[in-house]
TrEMBL record:
Species lineage: Bacteria, Pseudomonadati, Pseudomonadota, Alphaproteobacteria, Rhodospirillales
GO BP terms: intracellular zinc ion homeostasis
Keywords in alphabetical order: Cell membrane, Membrane, Transmembrane, Transmembrane helix, Transport
InterPro entries in UniProt: Cation_efflux, Cation_efflux_CTD, Cation_efflux_CTD_sf, Cation_efflux_TM, Cation_efflux_TMD_sf, CDF_Transporter
Membrane topology: Multi-pass membrane protein
A GO MF term: cadmium ion transmembrane transporter activity
Keyword Transcription included in the entry's annotation: no
Domain (Cation efflux protein transmembrane) ranges: 21-214
Transmembrane segments: 20-40, 88-109, 121-145, 165-182, 188-206
Domain Cation efflux protein cytoplasmic: 218-295
Principal location listed in the UniProt entry: membrane
Naturally occurring in which organism (per UniProt): Rhodospirillum centenum (strain ATCC 51521 / SW)
Protein's UniProt name: Cation efflux family protein
Length: 321
């Protein structure tokens, strides 16, 4: 691995950690402010936001631990590294968010059955505006980090903070309607809607994490770009059995490279290095495994097995089996 590539990875690791620390700092600040506001107003909508910020803090700590573990270098027992600690952290976040949504739903239903007045709505609105400003700043920073690192855990963290922006707006709407109408039902109704939104967010986070843990292929556009870059080399005769996956902190890409059978081993090695260099420029956080084969070799291929399985499945559907 060249020096520039190592520096890129070290830089990405630093930004991952900084994003995790920033997330924790914002969550703790908002917990303190919202707790004081809830004690002053008694608003269940404010409570919903306080619960969410508490979950955010816990989830951000899990994110930090997951990021730290994922960045641990490969060792004798984990030669592919520890990158999947990130999607595991994302799954833990999903569980925390779901639990908070259930508790919030329970509280909201209780307030619908027994409505209570909401005091100091002006204070509540001001605090939620403050929360929106802080959360927007954090999300902007997180998106910047994600674009440069591809971190699954930071992306999951950012996803529920983006949800927080909508949640905070919903809380403001509930407080405004309560103040204007004097009805005690707006507050718990909005809280129920927020609980549903939290569950939806949790499912999205879990789906993304499971895709990584189950080694789902990279998007079709990324796979097509790999093929195009390989075949752009004048001495590449083809490729097959392309396999890609996210590692949690990057990607893993491997394929069989078809070359002229008259090349020497040294020549085939040099061509492969040139192709890998092109791929690394497009996928700087990826690891590559490239197997050279003579063009036209008739061997057992994963591509063929997948095509046969699809054909058999279609045949079974058409025959009604």
């Amino acid at each position: 691995m060249n020096t520039d590539h190592m520096q890129d990875r070290e830089g990405a690791a630093r930004w991952r950690r900084r994003a995790a620390y920033a997330s924790i700092a914002v969550a703790l600040t908002l917990i303190a402010v919202k707790l004081a506001t809830y004690l002053s107003t008694g608003s269940v909508s404010i409570l919903s936001s306080l619960i969410d910020s508490s979950v955010d803090a816990l989830a951000s700590v899990v994110t930090l631990l997951g990021v730290a573990q994922a960045l641990t270098p490969p060792d004798a027992a984990h030669r592919f590294g520890h990158g999947k600690a990130e999607p595991l952290a994302a799954l833990a976040q999903s569980a925390f968010i779901t639990g908070s949504a259930v508790f919030l739903g329970y509280e909201a239903i209780g307030r619908l059955v027994d409505p209570r007045p909401v005091d100091s709505t002006g204070l509540g609105i001001a605090v939620m505006v403050f929360a929106i400003v802080m959360t927007a700043g954090l999300v902007t920073f997180q998106r910047w980090v994600i674009e440069r690192t591809g971190s699954i855990a930071i992306d999951a963290d950012s996803l529920h903070y983006r949800g927080d922006l909508l949640m905070n707006l919903a809380v403001i709407a509930a407080l405004v309607l309560t103040r204007v109408t004097g009805s005690g039902y707006w507050d718990p109704l909005f809280a129920l809607g927020i609980a549903g939104f939290l569950v939806w967010n949790a499912l999205r986070i879990a789906e993304t994490a499971l895709d990584v843990l189950m080694d789902r292929e990279l998007p079709d556009d990324d796979r097509a770009r790999v093929v195009a870059l390989v075949l752009a080399h004048p001495q590449a005769r083809g490729l097959h059995d392309l396999r890609t996956r996210s590692t949690g902190v990057g990607q893993h890409i491997d394929f069989h490279l078809e070359l002229d059978s008259d090349l020497t081993l040294a020549e085939a090695h040099d061509i492969t290095d040139e192709i890998e260099l092109r791929l690394r420029e497009a996928f700087p956080s990826a690891d590559f495994s490239i197997h050279q084969e003579p063009e036209g070799l008739d061997d057992d291929r994963l591509d063929n097995r997948i095509a046969e399985a699809r054909a058999a499945a279609r045949s079974g559907l058409l025959s009604g089996r």
